[in-house]
């Protein structure tokens, strides 16, 4: 033991320092910033990658997203065991970072649509390849990011000596500031990268760049961390306390089962059945840990709601208006509201709200704070449900599986009477369409237009526009049956000019369109769309259409159209699907409520847990806390996959109701909870132990535990506890 301390001291003396800090910590801080940028950058765009690139629906996208997040919070237990019992922290971080980097690179490759786009139409021809690659990449990322999660902060704590407590505290402040910075910047930047268009043969949303930049940052993180190798203080594995606790619990259960007959006297606590193998001090410490872990049982429900910011709330934002005047907010960028509010709310709560409550002589205990945090999260989902109801009112009613929808477009200047079998007759104005889609429960309809009859056959669950004139029905156009993806707008042209026309915008071309025919749809982004109309003689007309988010238009070029300065006067833009009408800014309300809940719940929960646990078992509670996050995400994927609620707002209400119910249960559990003083309990049992055994069981607080202790005592570390 003395030799080991002497070896460590010698290495410390040779380690370079700057302003009283080990130079090695700067490598660790840069590594953490890059790694957090990599993780949160990739995670910010992940659910939209599933929806828009892979082509999954909202439920499956949500399910896979939360499966990935759950794995990211299950693997830290494995990483801690590997580091403490086998490889040590440094090798564990390096090896799993390599796995992590490979996973990020695979994700970037999986998003390159040109790899399997053999016909160069912009759509991958082998989606199985892209899906398999992305699943492999995500599994490696989950193993990597989760495995290094419990090691990096503790490894940073290892770089300090016992007399450097002040420097260590400052280090943890800087360390968690780097987490905040990485999270903020990546959540801002990667959605912008995703919104760009890139590709070799065809331009699509640039998911390869959105995943590629985080992959590059992970490469930088790995290189920087390895570069500081010669300066690190590296301690040998000392054994994992979590494994020892699990073995003690396992032996107690086994011993109790083996002595379950009535002839064996009962013991005060079921953990007392471990006394045959383990000393009373360890058993007392395990009892304290189990008492806190029991309170963890209701906590996963909070995380079930909290982590939907990156899935359901992001998908909700795709149906909203992201126009903020001078700039456009992408749906996945709304997640940045949470880290921004965290930085603002933590000091406000600590310096204003809590002291004010104390002055009012309200006993706002940690467990009561956590209960309030859970209720605030439930309230956030009520706000999300109310917002969803407003969004649903602006969404078009598409046909069900047994219906068809039809509208009529008149290519003539005069009104044309129309009769549909079984419906009231109506007239379609000149150069215009019927007011709305007609919903019919049949596959064929008989139409009388301009005095002539015709029968049209349609597949169910489809939408159509029927072109008519005074001579009767001309042609049927197939309309889209869902809102355009990614806030784009679906634009098509109908040529009523009776000569061939070409329509172009930027590098995209529609045409030539024959007379009395319609074009396919062109996907056009938000803003002013400048279309160029060209006839066979080369004459041009520039037509500008102001577009919102998620709309669909049919642009009619009437028979009265003519080229010249006033060529756009007679062009008629008919709106088939309205643009998104609810602004994304309304989501700030639910983000604010959720962030307040996070600050009150998460920061307080960690502080309470560590205060109630033995000094050498902080890591056990850290593992238990991370496990509640994993279970919460599993709850989401079960509800998303197995739930049969027809409306999204109803699912939000369901989650809010479940959390309210769980909050009541937690409040009851908290009411009967008796606060402990772990040091006092440990001291009582230490008086019964031989001096040498005391040192063996408790010893001096390890650097791992100092990492957790400093984590809680530093004000700045609270800024992003849930981002660890």
Automatic annotation (TrEMBL):
It comes from Cyprinus carpio. It is found in: Apical cell membrane; Cell membrane; Membrane. The lineage of its organism: Eukaryota, Metazoa, Chordata, Craniata, Vertebrata. Its main location: membrane. The chain crosses the membrane at residues 62-81, 93-112, 132-157, 169-189, 209-234, 288-306, 336-357, 369-391, 588-608, 620-640, 652-676. This is Solute carrier family 15 member 1. The keyword Transcription regulation does not apply. Residues 698-724 are annotated as: Disordered. InterPro entries: MFS_trans_sf (IPR036259), POT_fam (IPR000109), PTR2_symporter_CS (IPR018456).
């Amino acid at each position: 033991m003395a030799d080991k301390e002497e070896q460590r001291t010698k290495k410390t003396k040779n380690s370079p320092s700057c302003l009283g800090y080990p130079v090695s910590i700067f490598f660790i801080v840069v590594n953490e910033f890059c790694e957090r940028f990599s993780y949160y950058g990739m995670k910010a765009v992940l659910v939209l990658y599933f929806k828009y690139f892979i082509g999954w629906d909202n439920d499956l996208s949500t399910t896979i997203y939360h499966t990935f997040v759950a794995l990211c919070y299950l693997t830290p237990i494995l990483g801690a065991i590997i580091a403490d019992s086998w490889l040590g922290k440094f090798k564990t971080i390096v090896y799993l970072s390599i796995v992590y980097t490979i996973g990020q690179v695979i994700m970037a490759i999986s998003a390159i649509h040109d790899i399997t786009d053999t016909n160069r139409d912009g759509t991958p021809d082998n989606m199985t390849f892209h899906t398999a690659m992305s699943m492999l990449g995500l599994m490696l990322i989950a193993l990597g990011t989760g495995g290094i999660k419990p090691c990096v902060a503790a490894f940073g704590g290892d770089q300090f000596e016992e007399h450097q407590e002040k420097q260590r505290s400052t280090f943890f402040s800087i360390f968690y500031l780097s987490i905040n910075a990485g999270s903020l910047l990546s959540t801002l930047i990667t959605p912008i990268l995703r919104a760009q268009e890139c590709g070799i043969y065809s331009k699509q949303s640039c998911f390869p760049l959105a995943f590629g930049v985080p992959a590059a940052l992970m490469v930088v993180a790995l290189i920087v961390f390895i570069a500081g190798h010669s300066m690190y203080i590296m301690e040998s594995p000392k054994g994992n306390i979590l494994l020892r606790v699990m073995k003690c619990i396992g032996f107690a259960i086994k011993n109790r089962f083996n002595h379950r007959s009535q002839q064996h006297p009962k013991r005060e606590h079921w953990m007392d059945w471990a006394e045959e193998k383990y000393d009373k001090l360890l058993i007392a410490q395990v009892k304290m840990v189990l008492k806190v872990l029991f309170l963890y049982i209701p906590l996963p429900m909070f995380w079930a709601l909290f982590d939907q910011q990156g899935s359901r709330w992001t998908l909700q934002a795709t149906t909203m208006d992201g126009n903020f005047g001078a700039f456009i907010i992408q749906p996945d960028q709304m997640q940045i509201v949470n880290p921004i509010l965290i930085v603002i709310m933590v000091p406000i709560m600590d310096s204003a709200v809590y002291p004010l409550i104390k002055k009012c002589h309200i006993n706002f205990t940690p467990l009561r704070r956590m209960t309030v945090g859970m209720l605030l999260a439930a309230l956030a989902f009520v706000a999300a449900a109310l917002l969803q109801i407003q969004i649903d009112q602006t969404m078009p009613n598409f046909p069900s599986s047994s219906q068809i929808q039809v509208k009529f477009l008149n290519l003539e200047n005069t009104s044309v009477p129309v009769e549909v079998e079984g419906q009231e007759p109506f007239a379609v104005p000149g150069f215009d369409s019927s007011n709305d889609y007609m919903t019919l429960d049949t596959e064929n309809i008989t139409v009388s237009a301009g005095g002539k009859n015709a029968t049209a056959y349609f597949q169910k669950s489809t939408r159509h526009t029927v072109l008519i004139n005074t001579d009767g029905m001309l042609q049927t156009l197939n309309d889209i049956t869902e809102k355009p993806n990614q806030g784009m707008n679906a634009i098509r042209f109908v040529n009523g000019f009776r000569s061939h026309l070409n329509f172009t915008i930027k590098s995209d071309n529609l045409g030539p369109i024959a007379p009395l025919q319609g074009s396919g749809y062109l996907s056009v982004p938000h803003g002013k769309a400048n279309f160029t109309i060209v006839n066979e003689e080369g004459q041009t007309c520039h037509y500008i259409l102001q577009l919102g988010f998620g709309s669909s238009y049919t642009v009619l070029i009437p028979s009265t159209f003519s080229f010249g300065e006033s060529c756009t006067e007679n062009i008629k833009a008919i709106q088939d699907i309205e643009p998104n009408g609810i602004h994304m800014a309304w989501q700030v309300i639910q983000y604010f409520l959720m962030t307040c809940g996070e600050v009150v719940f998460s920061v307080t929960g960690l502080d309470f847990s560590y205060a109630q646990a033995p000094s050498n078992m902080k890591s056990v509670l850290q593992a238990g806390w991370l496990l509640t996050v994993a279970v919460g995400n599993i709850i989401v994927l079960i509800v998303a996959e197995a739930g049969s609620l027809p409306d999204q707002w109803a699912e939000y209400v369901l989650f809010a109701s479940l959390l309210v119910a769980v909050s009541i249960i937690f409040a009851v559990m908290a009411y009967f909870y008796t606060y402990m003083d772990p040091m006092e309990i440990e001291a009582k049992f230490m008086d019964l132990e031989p001096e040498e055994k005391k040192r063996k069981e408790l010893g001096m607080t390890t650097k791992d535990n100092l990492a957790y202790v400093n984590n809680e005592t530093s004000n700045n570390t609270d800024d992003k506890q849930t981002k660890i």
